[in-house]
Specification:
Number of helices of chain B: 8
Structural class of chain A: alpha/beta
Number of helices of chain A: 10
Helix content of chain A: 25-40%
Largest sheet of chain B: none
Largest sheet of chain A: 6 strands, mixed
Distance between the termini of chain A: 42 Å
Strand content of chain A: 25-35%
CATH class of the largest domain in chain A: Alpha Beta
Strand order of the largest sheet of chain A: 6-7-8-3-9-10
Oligomer: heterodimer
Number of strands of chain A: 13
Number of domains of chain A: 2
CATH topology of the largest domain in chain A: Rossmann fold
Largest interface: A-B, 31 and 25 residues
Order of helices and strands of chain A: EEEHEEHEHHHEHEHEEHEHEEH
Radius of gyration of chain A: 21 Å
Distance between the termini of chain B: 21 Å
Structural class of chain B: mainly alpha
Chain lengths: 283, 210
């Protein structure tokens, strides 16, 4: 089966920042959480996939097709949501739906759109500029899901949203993924959200993709241990992914397979993994 | 294309309504004062005003980032904007023809085949220069460069004013030319100016990153 996303040695220079070369393969039918600190290259990667930026080197394939060869018809299979709803804010919901109907033509699914509008209880005649941030995001998601897209690319869609709306968004993504042909790549700072929904975690740091692993395997393969400074000396240095020092000793994020099984370890969260790795790099 | 034109109209509905109101009021004023021949001049100004407003709105809502990944080509996005300018130029041209036809003389003073392309050039020329500048430099910088261009045009007119003989020679040569050929030349100029402007805008927009 074709991968939903394939990036082969993709590189992009933006001022002093260099993204890549990045190679990434996302199988169909999963949710990938794309994580990294601010300025790591998450949005740049998504913009490259959406054709808003052009790669200096490498190749990007979405749903098996090189994006350079994308026709308008093929673009209908891609849904996207940014951190804001970038349509004229003077539009009412009615106007915005009409705009999308014309934009997507026969692919537009009015029934699906209406069902989401009802579900989110969005007002029809209010200008979008008067919508709350949460409502704008719900509307963005409504549009992205109303033209039969097979791939959703979401750039920080849950940032600034309250926990209830974030949970709604995640529920919708989990429903969407019930169709095995559908795939989601979601970048987010709110790692607890990804913990709930993602199958894979891809971690980008300073423009380099450090790993893409199955979330459960990633969490199972790591452990957090608290040790005194002396005890820490006995740990195999290659087992240590990251370190946090405190008054009474150190906390280590380690590879479970490289430390004795008898050691008492806690399961790390995705957030732990990201923070330990970034801080270790800064050290 | 329909979606993009719809978006432009909806996002500027208040400004468009005001513009239509102003044109109607001024039409009435011109008509009552017997100066109806000045009306087509508005169709030189309206596209310039609208193009500025369209680009300003787009920058404000960051809409390019939204429509580029959607199922439209970049060339179609550019074309949708030119279609509006050309439609307004066509309206201006039609009004010129109507005024000529139903004017006091009841007949064309200037042959229609000169009037038609000539009016189209007049109503679309400035927008044809303005559009690539807007695509290249954005709404803000584009406007500043455009103001600078006004000075260039002003200098050109000053130069022509000081060299009336040169202008006289050109007018004399034109008057000796066959009017049909002149009409064809004007039509070709209209097509070349607008075609080149569109091609340049597409080239600029296609290479733009967001």
């Amino acid at each position: 089966m074709q991968n939903a996303i394939e990036l082969n040695a993709v590189k992009k220079q933006l001022g002093n920042f260099t993204l890549g070369p990045i190679s990434l393969s996302v199988p169909r039918g999963c949710i990938v959480g794309y994580i990294g600190e601010n300025g790591a290259g998450k949005s740049t990667t998504i913009k490259l996939m959406l054709g808003l930026l052009r790669a200096d080197e490498g190749e990007i394939k979405l749903l098996g097709k090189n994006i350079v060869d994308f026709t308008p018809e093929m673009k209908k299979d891609i849904g996207y949501v940014f951190d804001n709803l970038y349509i004229p804010q003077e539009m009412t919901l009615k106007n915005a739906i009409s705009f999308h109907e014309k934009l997507y033509g026969s692919a537009w699914d009015r029934k699906t759109c209406n069902s989401f509008v009802d579900r989110f209880n969005l007002p029809h005649n209010k200008e979008i500029t008067h919508f709350s941030r949460g409502m704008k995001m719900q509307l963005g998601l409504t549009f992205a899901l109303s033209h039969g897209a097979k791939l959703l690319l979401l750039d920080e869609p849950t940032s600034g949203l309250d926990p209830v709306i974030r949970d709604d968004v995640l529920d919708i993504l989990l429903e969407y993924i019930q169709d095995e042909n559908n795939t989601v790549l979601i970048s987010s700072h709110i790692l607890s959200d990804l913990e709930k929904a993602a199958d894979y975690i891809a971690f980008i740091h300073k423009g380099q993709l450090l790993f893409m692993e199955q979330k459960d395997e990633l969490v199972e393969s790591c452990g957090v241990i608290s040790l005194s400074h002396d005890e820490a000396q006995d740990i195999d240095p290659s087992a240590i992914i990251g370190k946090r020092e405190h008054k009474f000793g150190v906390e280590l994020l380690v590879r479970r397979s490289l430390v004795p099984e008898s050691m008492d370890m806690d399961k790390p969260s995705i957030e732990d993994i990201m923070i330990y790795m970034i801080k270790e790099d800064r050290r | 294309m329909r979606a993009l034109i719809y978006k432009d109209i909806v996002s500027l509905k208040k400004a468009l309504t005001a513009l239509v109101g102003i044109v109607l009021v001024l039409s009435f004023v011109f008509f009552t004062r017997g100066q109806v021949h000045l009306l087509p001049l508005f169709f030189v100004l309206i596209p310039i005003i609208l193009v500025g407003l369209f680009f300003g709105k787009d920058t404000l809502s960051n809409v390019d980032q939204y429509i580029i990944p959607s199922p439209v080509r970049r060339s179609t996005i550019v074309l949708s904007r030119y279609v509006i300018v050309w439609a307004l130029a066509a309206m201006g041209t039609a009004i010129v023809l109507i005024i000529q036809l139903f004017g006091k003389s009841g007949a064309f003073i200037i042959p229609w085949y000169i009037l038609l392309p000539g009016s189209f050039i007049l109503t679309s020329l400035i927008s044809a220069i303005q559009m690539p500048l807007m695509y290249k430099f954005g709404a803000e910088k584009g406007r500043i460069i455009f103001v600078f261009l006004y000075f260039v045009v002003f200098s050109l007119f000053s130069y022509i004013g000081e060299n009336k003989e040169l202008l006289g020679n050109i007018v004399e040569k034109i008057s000796q030319t066959n009017t049909v050929i002149l009409g064809v030349i004007l039509a070709l100029i209209a097509i070349i100016i607008n075609g080149a402007s569109y091609a340049l805008s597409v080239h600029i927009y296609s290479n733009k990153e967001f």
